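Example 366, ligand prephenic acid.
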Amino acid sequence: MQQNVFIIGLGLIGGSLALSLKRNKDVKIIGYDANGQTLKTAKRISVIDEIATNLEESSAFADVIVFATPVSETIRLMKELPKWQLKKQVIITDTGSTKKEIMKVAISLKEQGITFIGGHPMAGSHKSGVEAARPILFENAYYLLTPFEDETDERVQVLINLLQVTKAKVVQVGAEEHDHMTAVVSHFPHLVAASLVHQLSFENEQYPFTKQLAAGGFRDLTRIASANPIVWRDITLQNRQELTDQLKAWTNEMIKLQELLSYADSSDIENYFNVAKKVRDDLPINTQGAMFSVFDLYVDVPDYPGVISEITGYLAKDNISITNLRIVETREDIFGILVISFQSTNDRAKAVECIANNTTFETYIS
Ligand SMILES: NC(=O)c1ccc[n+]([C@@H]2O[C@H](COP(=O)([O-])OP(=O)(O)OC[C@H]3O[C@@H](n4cnc5c(N)ncnc54)[C@H](O)[C@@H]3O)[C@@H](O)[C@H]2O)c1
Ligand SMILES: O=C(O)C(=O)CC1(C(=O)O)C=CC(O)C=C1
């Protein structure tokens, strides 16, 4: 039976969800975006099947409505929702990175007999907009749902069944717990990344060459500072309390570091890095999701003209698609490091084999 899914907000996440759900031939995607150009692009590149020109009217055809808008807009739209024409059995969900404030607003929907099940796919990127959307974005990632405690299993199961095609790992959590955990692994790291970039910018006034030296380490650590400021403004505002708590804990950690520096005890310093390395190395980095949404491969390449097109040529011949390519200019010897990004671990593994079969270049996975 055909299921009509109405996605509101067709950026990175709404677009990726649309592309992913469309793989189920029984699902039809109706899309809406406040930006008319985005809406047209979404239709032109087949992210959606049908354009919705009017929120109130298009909602009447939807079995499932997904808000994939910045979280403040999601709350504003949720408050308008009871005025829209809705099917009796419609399920409303969202993709927002915060859940507590959204579930508070959902209480009034529930009181009006409307089913709302909060959602948050733990995968994404610093890129935004419909052109960045990818059907495989959610594969192997956690997809958190925050239904009300007394929501019927049958209603939650309808949403879980719909999401099955994304190949995400759907897990149910409470909204408060959600906002605490995501503050730790996602929201607070974004604040830290932004603050490091501010620090560089300040430093750069006196030492302009510093920026040129920002190579792999700084770039890896601050990639997420390139994300959409509106999305992150809203997340920060909605999860302000948890972020304040994280900032306090981080400040205490910095005081510990200050002490380590002032005592200059080499074994304590080494131990500090050892503990961090162990915890970091034990993270489940080979799965997609909160940890990685791109899969990088490092290739040691000799410096001769045409070497990059040679490698991309081998990959193209083996039908391996790449999502990004860059050269890390950290060394001045005859080899450079080419960093190639792939959409999945599988593509990256195939690339390792392909490069080994065709060249003598060393490859590394960070
Ligand atoms: N970017 C990530 O990594 C990520 C990951 C998981 C969840 N999320 C959450 O998903 C949501 C969308 O994020 P994104 O990264 O796709 O952002 P995005 O900037 O790529 O897309 C947001 C889209 O929403 C549209 N929009 C804004 N207000 C609207 C409105 N009132 N009506 C209709 N459309 C509107 C914008 O025009 C834009 O196309 C956010 O709530 C975000 O917190 C983001
Ligand atoms: O991979 C990234 O660039 C992301 O920022 C993805 C990320 C994260 O912080 O991990 C961002 C926001 C989310 O709500 C979920 C995932």
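Summary: The CA atoms of residues 260 and 266 lie 9 Å apart.
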